[in-house]
Amino acid sequence: MKINRRHLMLGAAAGAATLAMPAVVGAQQARIIRYTHYQPGRLDQPKHAAALAFKSTVEGLTAGRIRVDIFPAGQIGPAQQVMEQLRLGSLEMAVVHDGGIAGVYAPYQAFSLPFLWENQAIAWKVLDGAFGAEMAEDMRKKVNIRLFAHADNGIRHITNSKRPIVTPDDMRGLKIRVQPSPVFVKLMETLGASASAIDWGELPAALSQGTVDGQENGVTNILAASLYQSQKHITLDGHVYSLHAYMMSDRFFNRLGKEEQAAVLQGVEVAKVIHRGMTAAQDANAEVILKEKGMTVQRLTSAQIDAFRQRAQGPVREWLDKEIGREWTEKLQNATRRAQEAA
Description:
Elements (H helix, E strand, L loop, with lengths): L1 H18 L11 E6 L9 H16 L4 E6 L7 H10 L4 E5 H5 L17 H8 L2 H14 L1 E16 L14 E4 L3 H9 L3 E4 L5 H6 L5 E4 L1 H6 L8 E17 H6 L2 H27 L1 H7 L3 E4 L2 H23 L1 H17 L1
Parallel strand pairs: 1-2, 1-3, 5-6, 5-7, 8-9
Antiparallel strand pairs: 3-8, 4-7, 4-8
Helix pairs in contact: 1-2, 1-11, 2-11, 5-14, 7-13, 13-14
């Protein structure tokens, strides 16, 4: 079923790309949305397929009054810089990963609590529900960034070039790259590894040169940067359900007319569905995909995963409570429990 959904989403994305065209009416007067993301500019990449769908939807609904210019692969700059530009209103729109968001809006780190969600269905109930809306409004008020929606950055797994990992003790002595977010440093340290915060653009070189032994990412990002070329082993532990957020400068959004705002919101909804579907399909087929790339895959049992959870979740929760306060972690875990009970 998930493979069929993947085909559906790829087809939708390809159709969106085919329909995308520059505005022909009043092109010189068109309002421009510069839209940046961090995956390669290819249709097999969820972020870019979704970006093309957003462009097609918004330009079509506004009859060219808005033009969307897409800058893939981090062309505008690193995540922290992009977040600052959104906050100041000097950039219109971006889709940024969780670690980059946390540098400007610290409560977003709550989503990095390890082993929080069992599956995508639970995650989406929390993200699309009252908790997600409350955090989005808090973010808008505090940093002037409008958070429209969340999509998948992939379920994060641990890769390395040294040895198979099946227990937390196997992590000892490994140098693991994490995204520039303190909570990820804390997570890897609780598992016994040495953590190095390295920006996404520098990761392939850090792995190939042996600066670090391994890293942690979802299937989509492993494929996007061809990390399998320097990483022999992957452990499907699923320690964090990683996120991308669709965000816009609040100043820019408020300058749009009601019909233009509606077009943006509809474009985000279309993009979100495509983005989630493609990434979820890759996550569901992680073992097959990565074995085909030559990686040795360790699929853990529930008991083995629980050993990682017992080692990491408590210390990371304690750290998060000190860094961002108990309010957000408690609300997130309560929202998760409600979603689980309703499932």
